[in-house]
Prior knowledge:
This protein has one domain (29-270). It has 9 helices and no strands. It has helices at 29-46, 57-70, 82-85, 89-109, 128-165, 167-172, 175-192, 200-218, 253-275. Helix 5 packs across helix 7. The longest helix has 38 residues, at 128-165. It is globular and about 55 Å long.
Amino acid sequence: xxxxxxxxxxxxxxxxxxxxxxxxxxxxxxxxxxxxxxxxxxxxxxxxxxxxxxxxxxxxxxxxxxxxxxxxxxxxxxxxxxxxxxxxxxxxxxxxxxxxxxxxxxxxxxxxxxxxxxxxxxxxxxxxxxxxxxxxxxxxxxxxxxxxxxxxxxxxxxxxxxxxxxxxxxxxxxxxxxxxxxxxxxxxxxxxxxxxxxxxxxxxxxxxxxxxxxxxxxxxxxxxxxxxxxxxxxxxxxxxxxxxxxxxxxxxxxxxxxxxxxxxxxxxxxxxxxxxxx
Length: 278
């Protein structure tokens, strides 16, 4: 993929801003989650089992849920994001910690040409390395924490998927209701999908979901620091990858809704094919 940058395309001093709930940016949580679901359905039905692909309807649905939830995870660097609000104070505090660590990573690894930042959005968690790190954690969590660790991971990503795919329902229900449903889904998935007992499928789905998020944010003018800080450019370690100007999208609630409609259609069509056994 071609990367396009301009001399002033470094990071703003405060980092990239994240909107308050109700404000519009080009790619919001529900759009990220639905794009993750659409990609998850496609990957689950096309990847070979040796790459984490699914072989049964239950496995396809589990893979899709993980990918939809993981597609929200990079925005854990923003306390106002969907993922930060999913489990109330727990994810709220986690988001603040991730944002602080992201700021530290950028400021420590940056060169003299990189601006120092005070906000962490679209920095460390919007890189290939973050996707690989979380994929590795999904791979190893069962070996480190056993069954409880795997169930906890499934509950976490189920909660993210619920908040992202059904935002209005999640907003209307009390937080404890969303958590209870997430727990039920996580436990049910573990009990009914043996493939989740092995590390391959969770690692594949979670990594894919994060990569889908990064591609979505590359549609914006500001792009993402995909290979930072490992690969420098123009004396900077933190610089953004974007798509060619003709296909990038300006910040607009209209564009976000258009993307959400497209991904919803793709996911619905694929889900119909899966459930019909076609």
